[in-house]
């Protein structure tokens, strides 16, 4: 579309600029009305992340460490059995051998201790961390019961400060996941639905640039961004005592870049696709690898070294890392230049590519 009127007569300079700005403003208003008129969209943007925070926060809340369950094959009056029953590290249960082995196979027990012979026998799965921990606990208790004396006398200084708990690790990850989901689906899926309903064919005959149309999706996301951040940050503070130790300006800046990057990816999906089923497949193809690799739920350092360069350039990884460092380490922008560059590249690159590949039909 050019900047001339429908009759081909050029508009005056100021009037033409005003007319070019008006479609973007009106389209942004339309995007906002579509959002608040759909209760389902409101739930997925605001309600679902809170439910996830409640569920995961309760599951991983600060609480005393569970004692590993141990099945013991021995008589209750065995001296080593009595030592284990008095232990504060493990939870032993005297069992018959078939029941104990069945419980070990079903991970009911972390370890089976056989005290029926001359020497203790440990049965456990070495691939399970809890089983290896249980073996160390049981071995230490048996050694002490057999007369071992510890040479050192260490002192424990327990710490559970804000910023070091799992919920402090989790909340920035939930922020990143929410920004990704709401931006991808709120932009890309809506664009596909509009094409499927033949609305884009009507827009194509108006004096509207496609960049205005695509940018209206991006701007409407920014309007709700502050509400999304405010709800999750406030809920984390009230429910779990999490708080932003760094700059709120930095938090908002990276949230804007993250929303822009995922909105751009959503525009790319919706640039040509005209089937909601195909769009859902592309959305899941984009999201699922980042759910696993980005470190939203657990540290991505668990993955092999050869995967780390790929993981670091994913937009969700950059966003979650930046939010987590601002949230829990009070990191400044000068310490976050790498995620800043990654998110900026995704935002600008995806929007530019979507603008070039977009088709009205």
What does this structure look like?
By secondary structure, the protein is mainly alpha-helical. The protein has 2 domains: 13-60 and 162-357, no CATH class; 69-145, no CATH class. Helix content is 63%, strand content 4%. It is built from 13 helices and 4 strands. It has helices spanning 13-36, 39-59, 79-85, 97-105, 129-145, 166-196, 199-203, 210-240, 248-270, 276-293, 308-312, 315-329, 337-357; strands at 69-73, 91-94, 111-114, 121-123. The chain has a 4-stranded mixed beta sheet with strand order 2-1-3-4, sandwiched between helices. Helix 1 (13-36) packs across helix 8, helix 2 (39-59) runs antiparallel to helix 6 and helix 9 (248-270) runs parallel beside helix 13. The longest helix has 31 residues, at 166-196.
Rg calculated over all Cα atoms: 29 Å
Shape: elongated
Task: Please identify the oligomeric state.
Answer: single chain
Cα distance, first to last residue?
15 Å
Let me know the number of strands. 4
Enumerate the spans where pLDDT stays under 50 for 5 or more consecutive residues. Answer: 1-16
Q: Structurally, how many domains make up the residues?
A: 2
Helix proportion range: 55-70%
Mean pLDDT score: 80
Largest sheet features: 4 strands, mixed
Note the total helix count. 13
Strand content: under 5%
Structural class: mainly alpha
Elements, N to C (H/E): HHEHEHEEHHHHHHHHH
Strand order of the largest sheet: 2-1-3-4
């Amino acid at each position: 579309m050019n900047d001339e009127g429908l009759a081909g007569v050029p508009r005056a300079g100021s009037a033409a600029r005003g007319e070019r700005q008006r479609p973007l403003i009106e389209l942004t208003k339309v995007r906002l009305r579509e959002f608040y008129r759909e209760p389902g969209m409101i739930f997925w943007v605001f309600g679902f992340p809170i439910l996830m925070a409640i569920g995961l926060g309760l599951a991983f809340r600060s609480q005393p460490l569970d004692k590993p369950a141990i099945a013991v094959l021995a008589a209750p009056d065995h001296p080593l059995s009595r030592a284990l029953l008095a232990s504060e590290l493990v939870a032993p249960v005297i069992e018959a051998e078939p029941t104990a082995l069945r419980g070990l196979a079903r991970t009911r027990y972390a370890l089976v201790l056989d005290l029926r012979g001359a020497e203790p026998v440990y049965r456990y799965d070495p691939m399970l961390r809890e089983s290896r921990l249980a073996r160390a606990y049981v071995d230490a208790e048996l050694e002490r019961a057999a007369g071992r004396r510890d040479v050192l006398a260490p002192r424990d200084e327990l710490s559970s400060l804000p910023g070091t708990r799992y919920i402090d690790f989790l909340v920035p990850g939930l922020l990143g996941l929410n920004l990704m989901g709401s931006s991808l689906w709120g932009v890309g899926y809506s664009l596909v639905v509009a094409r499927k309903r033949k609305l884009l064919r009507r827009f194509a005959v108006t004096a509207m640039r496609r960049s205005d149309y695509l940018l209206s999706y991006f701007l409407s996301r920014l309007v709700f961004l502050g509400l999304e951040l405010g709800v999750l940050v406030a809920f984390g503070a009230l429910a779990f005592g999490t708080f932003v130790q760094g700059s709120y300006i930095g938090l908002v800046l990276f949230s804007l870049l993250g929303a822009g990057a995922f909105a751009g990816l959503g525009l790319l999906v919706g640039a040509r696709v005209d089937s909601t089923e195909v769009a859902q497949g592309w959305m899941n193809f984009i999201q699922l690898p980042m759910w696993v690799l980005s470190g939203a739920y657990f540290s991505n350092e668990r993955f092999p070294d050869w995967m780390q360069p790929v993981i670091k350039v994913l937009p969700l990884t950059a966003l979650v890392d930046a939010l987590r460092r601002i949230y829990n380490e009070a990191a400044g922008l000068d310490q976050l230049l790498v995620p800043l560059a990654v998110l900026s590249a995704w935002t600008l690159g995806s929007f530019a590519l979507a603008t070039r590949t977009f088709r009205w039909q």
